[in-house]
Amino acid sequence: MTPTSRDTGATLGRIAVFAALIIVLGTVVVPLPGGVPITAQTLGVMLAGLVLGPRVAPLSILVVLALAAIGLPVLAGGRGGVGVFVGPTAGYMLGWIAGVVVIGLLLRTGRPAWWRVALSALIGGVLVVYAFGIPVQALVTGVPLDLTALSALAFLPGDLIKVAAATLIVVALRRAYPRAFADTRERAAVA
Predict the structure, then answer these.
(1) Which residues form a coiled coil (predicted)?
(2) Residue 45 is part of which domain span?
């Protein structure tokens, strides 16, 4: 079934909503030494992957990154400009793209029970993002990889709280408004 202009418009709207959510959550910032702050943006990244799925969620991340690239202050603490793509947080931002794909793919492998939502957010939203972020942070800051990984443990409690929050939000949203999710739209298009 080919998408209609209404479907395309709805998808673009969903991309914009999640890009805006990620940007707004970037206003919640706790600065840390080393140049990588604790932010709520990764909660928005997790939600995008969980709700939009592996094909659409990366587009919401790319919108945020494109806006940052042209200099808009859309990243944590009002940062923007091409300099952020060579700074200590560059790998984490790349990890957002891979992370939402992994989240979406993991969640689509079975029934979206609460534990599958949590596991998908943990693996894609934390482990994948760290896998990209930590090596780039180590490279940019000149700190050895093992010490950078050890310092990343400071983020883990907050990220686990974000996984729990994303799980609660998505489980409640799925019950209240299942049409919001990409997987229900994909099934409807096939039927």
Answers:
(1) none
(2) 5-190
